[in-house]
Amino acid sequence: SNPQRVVSLLGSYTETWQLAGGNVIATTDDAINERNLDLGDDIEIIGTVKEPNLEKIISLNPDFVILSSDIASHVQAAETLKKAGITCAFFKVEHFSDYLDMLNILTDIIGRKDLYKKNGLDIKEKIDKIISKTDNISNGPTILYLRAYATGVKSKSDDDMVGTMLKDLKAQNIASVYPSLLENLNIEQIIIANPDYIFISTMGEESAAIDEVQKSILSNEALQGINAIKNNHVYILDKEHFHYKPNNRWAESYEILYEDLYESK
Question: Residue 78: is its pLDDT beyond 80?
Answer without folding.
Answer: yes
